[in-house]
Specification:
The chain is mainly alpha-helical. The protein has 2 domains: about 5-185 and about 300-325, HUPs (Rossmann fold); about 205-295, Tyrosyl-Transfer RNA Synthetase. Helix content is about 55%, strand content about 5%. It is built from 12 helices and 5 strands. The strands form 2 sheets. The protein has a 3-stranded parallel sheet with strand order 1-2-3. Helix 1 (about 20-35) links the parallel strand 1 and strand 2. Helix 8 runs antiparallel to helix 11 (about 270-295). It is globular, with a radius of gyration of 21 Å. It binds tryptophanyl-5'AMP. Tryptophanyl-5'AMP (TYM) binds near residues 13, 137, 148 and 197.
């Protein structure tokens, strides 16, 4: 039987505070696409364990992430927003897929190499098999489409390879998912070093706009953003700082680079940076207000989590059982 709507799957790690990179690269696209697809969004708390977490803070971070998804505009009555760790099928399918993934493939993952170099004291096996858990997340829900930022593209490719390998051996078990990358926001760069991706964990707080930064902070960070010594607002490889600000501005306003260049023709960097700051602040203020309100309504969030955990578990179990049968694992009698 044809599915009524295609399936969309995505998620974020429950660590730190979301940045405007997470928002423009992923969350905003999720909201734009959510009516068109049947959507599953995970609070990826198992992925967060590759870095040591302080338990009380971790619980809070995961709940705050759930509230941010909702505050950004994902309706938990229409979208299945759930906790990854509440659905055991993720870990179960991950183990099976580990046995269908080659070390040679995992050795090529640039994110593993980057993270291993940055955390030399804790290069654990979870960090290494991180992409396999991510493949399990996606394949359990038979996702057609996975909206992510550009840094996740390689993980989507390995997911597709694992799924294809499994299907070649056992028939059409998994849907092969397509990545979805937005036009302008797929890779938001640091405001202080536009050669580097904007990241939650940057030591320089001026490099990152956090979703919960207040208006003044956002404007100040935009004003201080590193740019070149020219004054012309133009998009180009030779102007990474300005191009990054144009990406931020463009992905919120929907304007193309050409339109932005025309808008700021002859107006200089100062005015442009101010406009970017105000646009970001205007976009985030209502989200922040909804977020504060949601955190006050503990029972509402708890009920959404309960209902959606059950819905996710039901969908995931169907695929897991299919996989187990195909490979010859028996059910408990
Ligand atoms: P995480 O939490 O690292 O990132 C969440 C999403 O934000 C995007 N992103 C960015 N986009 C543009 N510019 C940036 N500077 C920027 N920084 C982050 C990421 O590309 C991502 O889309 N491994 C995933 C979490 C995950 C997942 C999944 C995603 C686990 N299982 C299954 C999709 C499907 C991750 O990177 O999260």
């Amino acid at each position: 039987m044809e599915k009524e709507k295609k399936i969309l799957y995505s998620g974020m790690q429950a660590t730190g505070t979301l940045t405007i990179g997470n928002y423009l690269g992923a969350l905003k696209n999720w909201v734009d696409l959510c009516e068109e697809y049947e959507c599953f969004y995970g609070v990826m708390d198992l992925h967060s364990l590759t870095v040591r977490q302080e338990p009380a803070q971790f619980r809070k971070t995961a709940k705050n992430l759930y509230a941010l998804y909702v505050a950004a505009g994902l309706d938990p009555q229409k979208n299945c927003i759930y906790y990854q760790s509440h659905v055991p099928a993720h870990a179960q399918l991950c183990w099976i897929l580990n046995c269908f993934t080659y070390m040679g493939e995992l050795n090529r993952m640039t994110q593993f190499k980057d993270k291993a170099a940055r955390h030399e004291d804790n290069v654990n096996a979870g960090l290494y098999t991180y992409p396999v858990l991510m493949a399990a997340d996606i394949l359990l829900y038979q996702a057609d489409m996975v909206p992510v930022g550009a840094d996740q593209k390689q993980h989507l490719e390995i997911c597709r390879d694992i799924a294809q390998r499994f299907n070649n051996l056992y028939g059409e078990v998994f849907t092969i998912p397509e990545p979805y990358l937005g036009k302008a926001g797929a890779k938001i760069m640091s405001l202080q070093d536009p050669q580097k991706k904007m990241s939650k964990s940057d030591e320089n707080v001026n490099a990152t706009i956090y979703l919960l930064d207040d208006r003044d902070t956002i404007i100040r960070k935009c004003k201080r953003a590193v740019t070149d010594s020219d004054t012309v607002v133009r998009y180009g490889e030779d102007k990474p700082g300005i191009s990054n600000l144009m990406d931020i501005y463009g992905s919120i306003t929907g304007k193309t680079a050409k339109e932005i260049e025309a808008e700021f023709d002859g107006r200089g960097y100062g005015e442009f940076k101010m406009a970017v700051g105000e646009t970001v602040a205007d976009e985030l203020t209502p989200l922040q207000k909804r977020y504060e309100d949601l955190l006050k309504d503990k029972e509402y969030l708890a009920q959404c989590i309960r209902e959606n955990d059950a819905k996710a578990a039901h969908a995931a179990q169907k695929t897991l059982r299919k996989v187990q049968k195909k490979i010859g694992l028996t059910e408990s009698l």
